[in-house]
Amino acid sequence: MICRAAAVACLAGGLARGGGAQEARIGEARSVLTQLVESYGVAGREGPVRETVIRLLPDWANPTIDSAGNVHVRVGRGAPLVVFIAHMDEIGFEVTAIRDDGQLELRSRGGFMPSLFEAEPALVHTAAGVVPAVFALRDSVGASPRRAPGALRADPGTGGRAASEALGLRVGDTVTMPKQLVPLAGSRATGRSLDDRVGCAAQILALRRLDPRQLRHSVLFIFSTREEIGLEGARYAAAQLAGERPVRVHALDTFVSADAPLEIKTYANAPLGRGAVVRAVDNSSVSPPALVDSLVALARARRIPLQVGTTSGGNDGSAFTRYGVPDLPIGWPLRYSHSPAEVLDLRDLVALADLTQAIAERW
Which of 143, 176, 209 is the last residue of a domain? Predict the structure, then answer.
């Protein structure tokens, strides 16, 4: 099935394009992604990200928000309905208790390695604003730096429960690490929460380039909530759309790539800078081979660089399969997934936006 020749052909054609126009598009992609990355939204508290998404949409868009907090943008009319979905939430923590010494006990919201956050700056997102803190170092007695720490705590430096509460800190507040999108050499960049701000950026960029009057059928773009804790926003959206029976769903999400110095290249090897990626298989779904081949042919015809691969993880589109909707997830290769220093190549974001537009217009 794995259309290697076709994938290589469309890759070569896509990478041949360049010049000033490509640089301008990379600049726009960087601008959109920066604003999304630098908005905070732990799973279940996506409000600031939702506001940024709506602000970045084209003027003609008419976004609506459903009961799960998902943002919907519907374009075109008539059957069939094609759905795109990218999630707004990021990994982080929730405050579960305030100790007598003023430190905050935390539980994880999403899956990651707690040791990457230990002894780093923290931000507590309260109803009144952001309060700075530090992720406390593990207790020294019996601790080993080679083992994962126990449950992390955040220390606002107050020394007591009453002082912490006086700062507005409450159980249920969310906690993150400070972040920003930092340019690297060439067209690469690093930051936290690229998963899945890149997918959201690709949908926004595609919508900016679509002409709604030219679409031949209905297309729905969803910016979903609570993906990192069980695809909850996607599950709600899929149930609400079951009666319309979408013909396909495309989840725009990370392709966790082995393109990193210490990774074995026999699995999930999608190099950065070589285009978007079709997830042929992941832990939550298997893409229909005929649809993979058809998408590769579309990308080749539009000269969009595209790779095909197998990786780990799940995707929002799998929530639709129980209703008989084929799931064909697309994404971009990412280094160091769910870490504070995720890395992407912005050319891959541009390719993903182009692919999303091509699917909406021609497939």
Answer: 176
33: helix, coil or strand? helix
181, part of any domain: no
The DSSP H or E segment spanning 342 is strand 342-345
173 SS3 class: coil
Alpha carbon 191 to chain centroid, angstroms: 12
- Tell me the pLDDT of the chain (363 aa) as tens digits: 344 434 444 544 444 455 788 899 999 999 999 999 999 999 999 999 999 999 999 999 999 999 999 999 999 999 999 999 999 999 999 999 999 999 999 999 998 888 889 899 999 999 999 999 999 987 765 555 566 667 889 999 999 999 999 999 999 999 999 999 999 999 999 999 999 999 999 999 999 999 998 899 999 999 999 999 999 999 999 999 999 999 999 999 999 988 888 888 888 889 999 999 999 988 888 999 999 999 999 999 999 999 999 888 889 999 999 999 999 999 999 999 999 999 999 999 999 999 999 999 988
Using only C-alpha atoms, what is the Rg of the chain?
21
> CATH code at 267?
3.40.630.10
Same domain as 352, residue 232: yes
The answer to whether residues 252 and 358 belong to one domain is yes
Domain residues for the domain of 139 are: 92-176
- CA-to-CA distance for 298 and 97, rounded, in angstroms? 52
> Would the pTM count as exceeding 0.85?
yes
**Using N-to-C axis directions, what is the helix angle for 346-362 and 19-37, rounded to 10°?**
100
298's CB contacts (< 8 A; 6+ apart) are 355, 358, 359, 362, 363
